[in-house]
Fold this sequence. Notes:
Layout: E1 27-32, E2 36-43, E3 46-54, H1 63-81, E4 85-90, H2 92-101, E5 106-108, H3 116-122, H4 150-161, E6 166-175, E7 186-189, E8 198-204, E9 207-215, H5 220-236
Parallel strand pairs: 1-4, 4-5
Antiparallel strand pairs: 1-2, 2-3, 6-9, 7-8, 8-9
Amino acid sequence: MECGRCGARLxxxxxxxxxxxxxxVECVVLDCGRExxxxxxxxxxxxxxxxxxxxxxxxxxxxxxxRRNFAGRIADEVHRKRPDAVYATGDREVLRAVRAQLHxxxxxxxxxxxxxxxTVLERAAEPALAVVETPPREKFGGSHSTxxxxxxxxxxxxxxxxxxHVKKVIPGPIDAGGRGSRTGVRAxxxxxxxxxxxxxxxxxxxxxxxxxxxxxxxxxxxxxxxxEDLNRGLADADLRE
Length: 241
């Protein structure tokens, strides 16, 4: 591929031109599996090219290093393009590691379907939600620090706190009068309110707790995108009610 401005040859389709200092693409879409990731460049509403990054998943003490290196190679593909925006979907551990190495806001794709790139193109006119860079542990607020289910309950709320469009999670009081459950800790995000915020309902046996989730959404429609994404995250972690 050649630079559309100066004609200089680019090593890969969509690369930033180092000759005339011009970007060739507008955004990059990342579809990250645990062992395989695709980085697709988009310009003028069309796919410019896709580069695939692979790894072999390690176990034990080598796992963090392998995942970090995998994420670093994915991030390098984005840095080569210098896009205006980055969209991503896929394995949450990989995405978390990629975001840690990116110098860009990484916008999560809600309901990506079978083709995340097509989803991004279809929703190009929709306003993008702001990304919160605050570490998940610093998003906890409110006067109630105890969560039903102990550590599992905290991990469940952590799914919400780790979401890039969540500003704060505020646990409420625990109600012991709920219906019983034999499946352990379960949760679901409920319908967004008019301000775009949602509630996370945690259930452990007969104990129920409501957690307010404050998002960067501006209205109910945008909040529903976050809610759907949270419920998918809970389902992926086998915590969905």
